[in-house]
Amino acid sequence: MADEFEISRTKMVQRLRDHYKIADERVLDVMQKVPRHLFVPEALKFQAYKDNALPIAGNQTISQPFIVARMTELLELKPSDRILEIGAGSGYQSAVLSKLARTIYAVERVPALAKKASERLSELGIKNVSVKCDDGTLGWEVYAPFDAVLVAAGGPVIPEPLVAQLKVGGRLVIPLGKDTKTQELVRVTRNESGFSTENFGACAFVPLIGQHGWQKET
Q: Distance (Å, rounded) from C-alpha 102 to C-alpha 81?
């Protein structure tokens, strides 16, 4: 869908490929197509394709394009996958995931954000994403098990319900840190006896609030 931001979107994707070394062409192709400017506040839409996170309602953020691409790439998605997304925010990450997997179940704890994300995705004709307002650290058990889980907020520990709701062989990508300001991007892979973890470096997210995360915002 051509629009006034097509050139900016192309430059964003070129930066993802050349500077950040995002190698999954499926991810890059989807990010070329999804209109990120429709997922940010109207006053910020001309900043939508810059190389940084942007504020949205509820003291939350829409993640930096690199982080969206990197987390999506680390999930190693297949078209048949069922995905759990924690921290739907504006719905942008949901839209990206929707083009790469069969079904997305997205949880957002801020009611206004959950409602707006659902409406925006519907307006764009995206029908394979379900959004609910709830404590994301509890997952969405009725639709488990999932092939992959993406957590777009930083927690102190890996939430046990999210690992429990992963299929064996499934991947969970989550920012983890001992404080609410900085984290490490971690991929958790569930196996027959438990799970293994890989560290992909420093990152910074809003805190993961909930029963299995931080108890309150700081």
A: 5
| Helix residue ranges per DSSP H, 52-110 | 65-75, 92-98
Read off φ and ψ for residue 196, nearest 5 degrees: -115, 155
Based on the structure, what is the number of domains in the chain? Answer: 1
Does the residue 76 lie in any domain?
A: yes
Question: What's the mean pLDDT in 173-178?
Answer: 96
> Do the Cβ atoms of 189 and 171 come closer than 8 Å?
yes
CATH number at residue 162: 3.40.50.150
The pLDDT tens digits of the residues spanning 27-65 come to: 999 999 999 999 999 999 999 999 999 999 888 999 999
Catalytic residues: 63
pTM: predicted TM-score of the whole model, two decimal places: 0.95
Across the strands, what pairs with 199? 186
Return the H-helix or E-strand segment holding 61.
strand 60-62
pLDDT band at 217 (very low <50, low <70, confident <90, very high): low
Q: Is 145 buried (19+), middle (13-18) or exposed (0-12) by CB count in 10 A?
A: middle
Contact status, residue 84 vs residue 98, Cβ threshold 8 Å? no
Q: In 10 A of CB 90, how many CB atoms?
A: 25
Helix (H) or strand (E) holding 30, with range, is helix 25-33
How far is residue 32's CA from residue 50's CA, in Å, rounded to a whole number? Answer: 14
Residue 10 lies in a domain: no
